[in-house]
Design goal:
14 helices, six-stranded mixed sheet, four-stranded mixed sheet, binds alpha-D-glucopyranuronic acid, alpha/beta
Length: about 325
């Protein structure tokens, strides 16, 4: 495993010798990995954050973004961050469930009533608590990014849960996603995002689920010609940073980073809405049919998940109750 390199280079020696403040020489470069192409709006939102951080800190803190999973899958990036080889990762709530169980709340089907409920939960007390909940795993969350609603897609139309029966459906490595596909009658197959295009093309899996921009930008729209707008989950993307990198920053730099991250979250909301429309149009041009199924059957089929949580997972159940109470 790579050793962490010069995350914080403070020239204390020079400062002592010349009697000037160490901060004049401080230069911190935070390496950030994610698995989307540069054309994805989350890349643009984080790029804006990187520029703002540099501006706010007079260039003393810089963020270098590595897109396209060039530093590994989302899971591998998380491990590199835990080992100190990376400082930040743009992951998402499904992947993070394995590191901090409270993220499961975001992965439950039909938990959010609508977009404003989804934003209010993330930006309120519960959202902040969940971002902080992974500290024991070596990192914390800085902000959420809108990632819309996820729906099923396949090479055949999916109108009801019955259409999922017998289908091998790629899910993220999240226990909630697996439980959801089981509840809907499909056969869940966890796979890394980067392996999915080939898996769909070669029939290793029959279907998948994602938001429209990811479906289009990953070119899954070339192989799956039916996108069914069942909108089962609204799983936010999450920007995380290692405790070591975060704690190594001065109070001022931490505040600058948090502010720029929050601004990029706000920017992302606007970028997301546009991206959903643009990418849907692109997919339609490629011959993808968008289906509006009756959601009621999907909602009904997943209710046993909530009954099971109420019985066996009081902590998660408490979060669910609090989420429901948010306006
Ligand atoms: C979304 C999300 C990614 C995630 C991907 C997936 O595109 O933004 O963080 O990796 O879904 O389904 O794996």
């Amino acid at each position: 495993m790579m050793k962490r390199k010069n995350v914080l280079t403070v020239m204390i020696g020079a400062a002592l010798t010349f009697g000037i403040t160490a901060s004049a020489y401080a230069a911190t470069t935070l390496k950030l990995s994610h698995n989307h192409p540069r054309g994805h709006v989350v890349h643009q939102a984080m790029d804006a954050m990187a520029k703002e951080v540099s501006l706010l800190t007079d260039g003393e803190v810089r963020i270098r973004i590595y897109p396209d999973a060039q530093l590994g899958t989302q899971r591998e990036s998380m491990e590199l961050m835990q080992n100190g080889a990376l400082d930040m990762v743009k992951s998402n709530a499904a992947e993070l469930e394995a590191f901090a169980p409270a993220y499961a709340a975001f992965n439950l089907p039909y938990i959010f009533r609508d977009k404003s409920h989804y934003y209010n939960v993330q930006e309120g007390e519960i959202g902040e608590e969940i971002l902080a909940s992974s500290r024991d795993s070596g990192f914390i969350g800085l902000t959420y990014y809108d990632a819309g609603a996820r729906s099923f897609y396949a090479s055949k139309p999916i109108n009801t849960p019955a259409d999922l029966k017998g289908l091998k459906i790629r899910v993220q490595p999240s226990p909630s996603a697996i439980a959801m596909v089981n509840a809907l009658g499909g056969s869940p197959t966890p796979l890394a995002y980067g392996e999915l295009y080939t898996a769909l093309q070669q029939g290793v899996v029959d279907a998948a689920e994602n938001n429209i921009p990811s479906f289009s930008l990953s070119r899954h729209s070339e192989v799956s010609k039916y996108y069914s707008l069942d909108e089962h989950t609204m799983v936010p993307d999450v920007l995380v940073i290692s405790n070591t990198a975060y704690d190594g920053l001065s109070d001022e730099h931490r505040a600058a980073l948090k502010l720029a991250a929050t601004h990029s979250m706000e920017l992302m909301k606007k970028l997301w809405a546009k991206s959903e429309a643009t990418e849907r149009e692109k997919a339609e041009k490629l011959g993808v049919t968008f289906i509006e199924p009756n959601k009621a059957a999907f909602i009904k089929a997943v209710q046993p998940m909530y009954q099971e949580i109420a019985k066996s997972n009081p902590e998660l159940n408490k979060i669910i109750e609090r989420i429901k109470a948010v306006k």
